[in-house]
Amino acid sequence: MLSNKYSIYLGSETEDIFIGFIVNDGFYLVLKIESKISKEEGHEILKDISDSIKSHDIKGLDDFENYLASKWTQHNLPADFSYATGILKDKLLLLKTKGSGQIFIKKGNDFAKIIEAEDRASGDINPEDFFVLTTKSFTDIIGGEESLGEVFDNKNPHEILEDITPKLKSQNDQGTIALFLTFEVKDQTVLEKAEEHTESQYRDKILPKTSLVKDKVLRVRELLKVWLTDKLSKKPATIILALIISFFLIWSLVSGYNRNTIKATEVIKEKLIQADEVSEINLSRATALLAEAKNDLTNLKGALKNKSKSEIVELENLIKKYESRILKTEEKSSEEFYDLSVENKSAKIYEFSKHDDTVVVLDITGSAYILSLAGKSIDSRLSSNLKNSTEIAIFEDNVYFLKKDGVYNIGPDDKSDKVIKEDGWGDITDMAVFTGNVYLLDAKNSDIYKYIPVEDGFSSKKSYFKSGQSINLDNSNSISIDGSVFIGFPKSIVKYTSGLRDGFSTTYPNDNLKITKIYTDSDTEKVYAWSKEKGAVYVFSKTGSYEIQINSSILKSASDFVVYDNSIFAGQGSKIYKISLE
Fold first, then answer.
1. Reduced to 3 states, what is the DSSP secondary structure of residue 51?
2. Is residue 207 in some structural domain?
3. How confident is the model at residue 194 (pLDDT cuts 50, 70, 90)?
């Protein structure tokens, strides 16, 4: 069986930073909490996780991620915490990071970062694979990733710790933590099983892929190293001959690859196959491999200089095929559902809000339209107060709209009244109504205000967050409520339930995304993230698992969207378009 060797570097703690770790029968964790939490509280959290992980049935990454999320929620951890963790299941290592967490691997002579921030990975491990579980502050203090890779130098974990400690202790190492971890075989049968897995199988799942030439050179070098060891007692001429053979073998591999650039097509195909294989367990790695394949194709085009056009077209189509399958992309057409110009020739849709099967549309000309998505019947609400309003929401027969000085309600008689007064708001970026309660997202003050209906209107504002649960909302752009509150950011979604941070982790299929708005409600089982820039809506389960990407040209020019009855409804100009998700 596999046993571990490890060492842990712990920097100095402060009142505002807690650091701790767990090494427990195949489970490894480094934790950093940048908030006022006592050492006793921190160690109690670690002890509970260490004890409970033993009895938890973890079969794969989803189980592991859900277990961790439940523990962070149970202990009400503040938003500013980071971790890097792994659990060994037989010979499969499951890895997860959050915040500033980072995980590196040294495999042979190669050293690379596997994952960081909100990410996960898994793969088979081999004896003597070396892992570092840490956070960015440790990587920074040691001098960056390149310097971190240089500390190994054939040392074991304890030798590494003895080597780096004097240098780091002479610096400001507050809140730094790193776990150096390697494995050895105590049961020969495990070693034999591990050797059955090829290097490419392991590399696909964890180690970032090096170039094809480099892989071949490394393999030749290792073979020659063993072979030459056997020959050292032989004649010097034999050694010289071996060196000559090794030189020409490596030279032929490299020069042969350079001479025949068309073989790059095999490298591209290999990366596409790898991306397909790892997409279910590590979408981030799969998208990185896709990007590499596209870049390789660009380089190949330059090398061929308009030659072999049919091969290039074949590769382009192959990349599109794999990309569509890996990212689960569907191109959808849209159809016109309703044209508000029938009601008002100058109508221009600014924003939507939905309740049950009804959507309220804010027209920037100063009107609101209540449209039944089931029957296409329409009603209008007219008021001069609607001009210059920034948000709109509907609940039952009440239409609410937001202005700088407060929230107004406009009834069927077109009479509008201020029902909530402005009260020290910063920058309200979104408004939602759920079960009659009004919620305002204040990005500047990093708060969500909750107003509850009372006999004469609404209560005074109350923070939705429980004590110590709020996070930085500077870049937040939308909220959506299904009982839990989902907060949209340009690159992430955060979920709260009853004012407490809930487990919700998303992995987008593209790195350079800018999410415009999120949407969900109690009538749908999905969470939708709209990127106007990409003209796409990304669909997730309510636990954050990525499911599909919907592309449609109308999504690039739309002003807002909602989802009803397995269809996306997008507003553009005076028209509402429907995109079927079936």
1. helix
2. no
3. very low
Q: Distances in Å between the alpha carbon of 108 and those of 92, 222, 225, 551?
A: 19, 10, 13, 43
Task: Please indicate, yes or no, whether residues 69 and 95 belong to a single structural domain of this protein.
Answer: yes
Structural domains counted in the chain:
3
Neighbour-count burial of 114, counting CB atoms closer than 10 A to its CB (0-12 exposed, 13-18 middle, 19+ buried): buried
Quick check: is 461 in a domain?
yes
Query: How many contiguous H segments (helices) and E segments (strands) does the chain have?
Result: 12, 37
Which of 320-324, 327-331, 504-508 bottoms out in mean pLDDT, i.e. has the lowest? Answer: 504-508
One-letter amino acid of 309: K
| Residue at a domain's end among 329, 361, 382 | 329
Q: Which of 336, 345, 375, 376 is nearest to 363 (CA)?
A: 345
Q: What is the pLDDT of residues 227-247, one digit of tens each?
A: 334 334 444 554 554 455 455
pLDDT in tens, 523-572: 999 999 999 999 999 999 888 888 899 999 999 999 999 999 999 999 99
- Is 424 found in the same domain as 569? yes
3-state secondary structure of 534: coil
Q: Residues 275, 153: one domain?
A: no
Tell me, yes or no, whether 540 lies in a domain.
Answer: yes
Return the residue matching tokens 């050179």. 217
DSSP of 372-390, one letter per residue? Answer: ETTT--EEEEE-GGGTT--
Structural domain of 288 = 212-329
Residues 363, 439, single domain; the answer is yes
CB within 8 Å of 418: residues ≥ 6 apart: 405, 406, 407, 408
- What's 557's domain CATH number? 2.120.10.30
CA–CA dist 448, 440 (Å, integer): 6
**Cβ atoms < 10 Å from Cβ of 568:** 25
Task: State the Cα–Cα distance between residues 556 and 537, nearest whole angstrom.
Answer: 10
> Of all helices (H) and strands (E), which one includes residue 96?
strand 92-98
Q: Long-range CB contacts (< 8 A, 24+ apart) of 548-553?
A: 548/328, 548/329, 548/330, 549/327, 549/328, 549/329, 549/330, 549/509, 550/330, 550/332, 550/579, 550/581, 551/329, 551/330, 551/331, 551/332, 552/331, 552/332, 552/333, 552/334, 552/579, 553/334
